[in-house]
Amino acid sequence: MSFPEGFLWGGAVAANQIEGAWREGGKGWSVADVATYKPDADVRDYKTHVSVSSDSIKRAMEESDCTYYPKRRGIDFYHRYKEDLALFAEMGFKVFRLSIAWTRLYPTGEEEEPNKEGLDFYENIFKEMRRLGIEPLVTLSHYEMPLLLSLKYNGWTDGRVIDCFVRFCQTCFKHYGQYVKYWLNFNEVDSIIRHSFITAGIIPDRCGEKSELSCCYQALHHQFVAAALVTKMCHELISGSKMGCMLTKLMTYPRTCAPEDVAATQKKNLENMFYSDVMVFGEYPKMILRDLEKRGINISMEPGDLEILKEGTVDFVSFSYYMSMTESVDPNAERTPGNTVLGVKNPYLESSEWGWQIDPVGLRISLIELYDRYKKPLFIVENGIGSKDILEPDGTVHDAYRIDYFRKHFQEMEKAIDDGVELMGYTSWAPIDLISASTNQMSKRYGFIYVDQDDLGGGSLKRIKKDSFYWYRKVIETNGKDMS
Fold it and tell me: Is the pTM of this model over 0.90?
């Protein structure tokens, strides 16, 4: 079986990693604007790169220069979106996943009325996408919440942020519902445990008597409630709309067949899928609640919260997939980094320059596992490889390694479809080079399109088609039949 007719091929980005123009158009401070590039930190040490404190935020807000705050400048999509969308259309994109920066519409998060310049900016993008025949897939929250909500309420730990987010989403639905059918609530909602500030605006030194982990689970509950509320609202305001959840699929295998390793792996995989469980089934898994109880983590819930979860379940399940890892109870087992995680190294797999292990078969396993569990349509909304691409003197970029990576993953997707998986579409991360989410690097390149910019912001920002650009165009044109 080949890819189904109407399969949505495309690419995915986030506003905070591409837009730039951080002080233009009435935009307010977001958590991404204080993310720091740390050139002296090991790129495999993600915890150092995402660490934050009240002092580091204060210093960042006093600094107007963008050199070490690269998400403030992005790749200037704000001014170049027509050029970039034209390149995506040239590749044949059926869909483009992007996010709406909350602080372009509500600079502090608490305004009663949205900022018109921000509203117009995204409307112009959607109009251009419609002209080009590209379907939008919009993420409502993608690591760019208002910084002032973080400072005032310690982010999503305070339930008052729910109302702020619902107001923002209502504005998005009312203004853009005529253009956008497919929506995602929270990007990699599970990542709150791995980087709480980026995901939920939690500043660890402001958690008081509570542990950071307790704050994470409380904030997560508020995000679950908000997700259910906006899912129901989306269905009511936009006829035929579809809302999906978004999970980091952290495929984990037992390091050995020792029962202890299998048990540890099972626990890790259950924890990974707990987040999508809540948004698909509308309730907390009993074993997760028991585990939180044993760890002394108490989630405060308002009357009616559980009913809200039941009434606002999602229509499809989307996920990111970059790598797999193994698990072992052996404390001396060698560990290697992945997508903001550490896992036991798998000796049967190759690794990227950033230590992420490359496992195309793991994508097929993930698709089958998720579809068997949820019985809902699936959408792969992030998948790709970060590499140090070389711009040749003649202005070309030869990235055969990227083509090989995608070919192998696409072949495994095709096998999963043949096994009966209902797969809606695929958006690569990312179709154009952008600022890395965790390390804030530009030199970790994902795109089919090279952007002439270095880690400190130097360069012309010229867009250059890589070899993979032409290869992906051929894949899309033939709906996956020609991957040569």
Answer: yes
